[in-house]
Give the backbone structure.
Amino acid sequence: MLKNNKLVINYKAILLLIILVFSSTQLFSQEGIKVEDVFSERTTKIKRNEFKNNLINNNIELTLSQELNDSSEAKWQNSFWAMELMGYKSENTFTAIKSALNKFDNTTITFQRALLEVVFTLYKNEFYHEISKVLESTHNEKIFAMAANHLIRFKNSKYNTEEFTSLLKNKFPKWNDNSILLSLYNHFNGSTEVKFKLDEIFSLKFIPNSTIIFCLQRKNRNYEGAIVIRNINEKFIRDNSGKIIIIPSLARSVTNLPYYITNGNSPQGFYSVQNIGRTSNVFIGPTPILELGMPFELSVNKFFHDQRPNTEWNFETYDELIPKEFRGNKNYYESFYAGMAGRTEIIAHGTTINPMYYKSETYYPNTPSLGCITQSELWDENTGKLNFSNQAKLIEILRTVDISNAYLLLIEIDSLNANIKLSDIQDFILKAEK
């Protein structure tokens, strides 16, 4: 919109606005994606520099130099998002955030969430005392959970697991009826050991006669995961040489918050594959996306691709996806709890975001999202044409298989600090196919 003859853009609103278009186009035909013809002007060096300078100078530094009040909260929230996107902070941003934390109780819940999100994302070892006050004073479940997740990271914190649990139960007597607080409790009190076994993961007992997209991740989401696909004939997709196709994938949010918090990491568990579509979101770009849905976000019959009567979501319904002998593993249920907590719009998509923002990160050249599953794309900085796309590769494969009754299963396979390679999983896949 235009304000005082200046263009004011709500970048986070643009990023969250996803308009799906399911009609085919010549560029993305059923015959294949012509990568060399895909173009995004915003990926050129000139446009990326313009965007970066505008974010820093106007959306961040200028905005956060102005007074925080009721009318400026939205602008400050946009500044926080821009900081997260770029990993940007300065003396001015530190001062502004400290000032905002001192006014915390006089701000809206929406602003409080945005403020805690940027603190968690960029100020891991800062604002202990300010966030402690938030934890003690708030009676909002999500604010409490966000504050707790920040404080638990401090080595010398007075808050340990027992202290958090006691405070949670005293402050929220019905905590186990709230999906966020229940997930927080399980997060802090559960075992840190990854309980999945690859033999179990690739077992053909999972949803037979359906295409399954396995999105495999490390417990540490700072490392690149991988996607492999089992088709309806219960065989994994291979290339012309017979080699299992593996597609690098990132399921890390830019915030690295846990799955039960808005804009947190992609939850483990099952997603229903709905469609291959397109989006007008400029940060995702022109490459087709894979639309997914979680429990509660979708109705039961839409999630299960069937015509069953409308029923309410419950554990028994979700358990239809999981063989009886595997139902004790809570990790399978993260998408269920996340959907119950209100998370939505987690899809698999490409990216036009400048990977250089994350050049010092272990997941580079991947770019994190606000909780989606992203596949890297590299663009020519002079022409804006697409040079390479793991997202296009994923979509090309999915157009060769039946996805009318398909699901995606996202799982953390272990706690190693390394990217997932085919050699990590190949023997288990071959064993499962026998």
Q: What stands out?
A: The chain has 15 helices and 14 strands. The CA atoms of residues 46 and 381 lie 8 Å apart.
